[in-house]
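Board notes (copied after class):
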Amino acid sequence: MLPLEERWKLPPEEQDIEVTLYYLTREEGGRKKPAFSGYRPQFHYSGRDWDAVHSYPDVEFVQPGQSARAYLSFLSPECHVGRLQPGTEFLVREGQRVVARGVVTRILNLEESAKRIGRDPAGCWD
């Protein structure tokens, strides 16, 4: 398995989830610079932050104020099986600052990623 920082290079069918993102403008408190594939902010939902690497299949980069489709790969996919589904809303954060809002559109390879990692998800939400 590729290291997390390289997982954005995986083909779509090997990514964990597909999402639609809207990057906030600078005036809305968002980023000043565009986000590129390989970007690794926090994926925030249900009161928790998780590491997820982004891949933007349709564009080279996403500017603040733009929306884009993205594939995400989690460092801890076992923690999200059965918790994420299409329609789940989430925030993208850099520390405590919200830089984007998103919604899960498809679950791709999340269960297979979790099985490949082979960790017990029991302690994920403690």
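Comment from the instructor: The chain has a mean pLDDT of 90. The two ends are 27 Å apart (CA to CA).
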